[in-house]
Write a structure and sequence with these properties.
- The structure holds two protein chains of two kinds.
- By secondary structure, chain A is an alpha+beta fold.
- Chain A is built from eleven helices and 14 strands.
- Chain A has three domains: 10-59, Uridine Diphospho-n-acetylenolpyruvylglucosamine Reductase, domain 2 (2-Layer Sandwich), CATH 3.30.43; 64-171, Uridine Diphospho-n-acetylenolpyruvylglucosamine Reductase, domain 3, CATH 3.30.465; 177-291, Enolase-like, domain 1.
- In chain A, a hairpin with a 6-residue loop joins strand 11 (205-211) and strand 12 (218-219).
- In chain A, helix 4 (94-101) runs antiparallel to helix 7 and helix 10 runs antiparallel to helix 11.
- The relative contact order of chain A is 0.11.
- Chain B is an alpha+beta fold.
- In chain B, helix 2 (87-98) crosses helix 5.
- The N and C termini of chain B lie far apart (83 Å).
- The model of chain B has no long low-confidence stretch (mean pLDDT 93).
- Classes of the chains: A alpha+beta, B alpha+beta.
- The A-B interface holds A 1-13, 23, 37, 39-41, 43-45, 47-49, 54, 57, 59, 61-62, 85, 104-108, 110-111, 186-189 and B 1-4, 23-27, 29-30, 33-34, 43, 46-51, 54, 57, 60-63, 65-68, 70-71, 73-75, 114, 117-118, 132-138.
- Strand 1 (10-12) of chain A pairs antiparallel with strand 1 (2-3) of chain B, so a sheet runs across the interface.
Chain lengths: 298, 174
């Protein structure tokens, strides 16, 4: 026998965002614990293990308007029901495509969604780490209307129980972006530590987020400012020693993040901090070609 | 709304099956095996990591342990038995046997679903693409070499690989 799922007693399957908001309100009226179901890759195993309990489930699979992605002049909008597979080949968003490509496995990428990544908010979630570096905004819908908030504010004040995530919005890329991670296996297992680096060559900005060192991905403000000062913006290069220093600054920053995550075999805090520095250095070197002294002696 | 205890329908391998008595929190894997008796869909990790319960959900490869069964009402679910008795799926099954890609056999139905899906979308996939596409299917016997050989054999047999120019011949010896 497989292990049965939780004791959910009601299931709602809306066909539009407005209907979903209404059904969410109905489901909550009786004081029930309600779970929003998108792709199911986090929620369904969690219901079975008892990690999560729900009296009612509002399933969003049939809300087609959540599955739309679009590009404006300055921004990209990705519906909450867009899957990782839908993002893998998106040429307008190479960093996002890269982060989506290394999520889980084909099975997970085909079902897991952008909204689910935000709703579950795993500490080292691939997409969450990338969106943290990309200064994403989160769009939500509730009976009080639509709301748009920076990701950081959204994560600090989790989804109100009567709200659902409708989309994320981010600026169109203005330079190279990479996403790198370390996990127990290359595929299918969650990352232990991850790093997203976003370079904006137009506005002269470097953004770096590290996942897996705290309860949410964290921005590396000090290391970012340091890197901005070291980049030669006309050539898009950086001195090789600055790459090492960047990694060291990241290690210092992540070591100061509390409270500590639970330690598992092979995932001590020291290992995570060291890995964060290595990944950050590697990410920076991929975005901005490191220059030795000889290169710069022109 | 569906309330606990109400029946619902699933489309499994082209047949409409009534699901009676399953919990609303039950996964598609649980309902397939324990309610409907479809035991080719294997139960191993129940966390979406091993691929033994792989099915096609509306044409896309998915781990049935991560799908809520009641939410698959209205979707097309295809297991290894529904892939077809002829054509590509038959060739994949035959080559798994011919190339010794089956050891204990537990992962095999999931692999056959995943490989058939891959070769339908990407007939000329190379080794790297094949390995990446199958990273969500784990073989605890570690028979990956033979599985890869079986896939290559299917591609050759069915003419899926681009015709390669023969390497230039040079006179041997001298």
């Amino acid at each position: 026998m497989t292990v049965a799922g939780g004791a959910a007693s009601r299931m709602f399957r809306p066909r539009g965002v407005g209907e979903a908001v209404e059904m969410l309100a109905v489901a909550r009226e009786s004081g029930d614990v309600v779970a929003l179901l998108s792709g199911g890759t986090d929620l369904v195993p969690a219901l079975r293990s008892g990690e999560r309990v729900a009296d009612a489930v509002v399933a969003l699979r049939r809300v087609l308007e959540l599955r739309v992605r679009g590009a404006g002049a300055d921004s990209l909008t990705i519906g909450a029901g867009v899957t990782y597979t839908d993002l893998v080949g998106w040429s307008l968003a190479p960093g996002l495509a890269r982060a989506a490509r290394v999520v889980g496995s084909a099975q997970i990428r085909n079902t897991g969604t952008v909204g689910g990544a935000l709703g579950s908010a795993r500490p080292a979630g691939d997409l969450l780490t990338y969106l943290t570096a990309a200064d994403a905004e989160v769009l939500t819908a509730s009976p009080r209307g639509l709301r748009r908030r920076p990701l950081e504010r959204f994560l600090a004040d989790p989804l109100a129980a009567d709200s659902l995530i409708t989309a994320v919005r981010l600026a169109r890329p203005g330079g190279p972006q990479v996403y790198v991670k370390i996990g127990g296996r290359q595929a299918a297992y969650p990352a232990i530590v991850s790093c997203a680096l976003v370079v904006d060559r137009v506005r002269h900005r470097v953004a770096c987020a590290i996942g897996g060192v705290g309860h949410l991905p964290a921005r590396m403000g000090g290391a970012e400012s340091y890197a901005v000062g070291e980049v030669d913006w006309t050539t898009g290069t950086i001195p090789a020693p600055a790459v090492r220093r960047f990694g060291d600054l990241v290690v210092e920053a992540v070591a100061g993040i509390g409270p500590a995550l639970p330690v598992r075999p092979g995932e001590s805090a020291d290992y995570r901090w060291h890995a964060a520095g290595v990944l950050a250095g590697r990410a920076l070197a991929r975005c901005l070609h490191p220059r030795t002294d000889r290169d710069g002696a022109s | 709304m569906t309330a606990a205890g109400e029946s619902y329908q699933l489309n499994i391998d082209g047949f409409t099956r009534a699901v009676v008595g399953a919990g609303l929190g039950d996964s598609l894997l649980t309902v397939l095996r324990d309610t409907l008796g479809v035991t080719s869909v294997k139960d191993a990790c129940e966390q979406g990591r091993c691929g033994a319960c792989s099915v096609l959900l509306d044409g896309r490869l998915a781990a049935s342990c991560t799908v809520l069964a009641a939410d698959a009402d209205g979707a097309r679910v295809v297991t290894v038995a529904g892939l077809g008795a002829v054509g590509l799926a038959r060739a994949v099954r035959a080559m798994f046997l011919a190339e010794g890609a089956v050891q204990c056999g537990f992962c095999t139905p999931g692999f056959v679903v995943a490989v058939t899906d891959l070769l339908t979308r990407r007939p000329d996939a190379d080794d790297e693409e094949i390995r990446e596409a199958l990273a969500g299917n784990i073989c605890r016997c570690t028979g990956y070499g033979r599985i890869l050989a079986a896939i290559r054999a299917v591609q050759r047999e069915r003419g899926m690989l681009p015709a390669r120019r023969e390497p230039p011949t040079h006179p041997v010896g001298g």
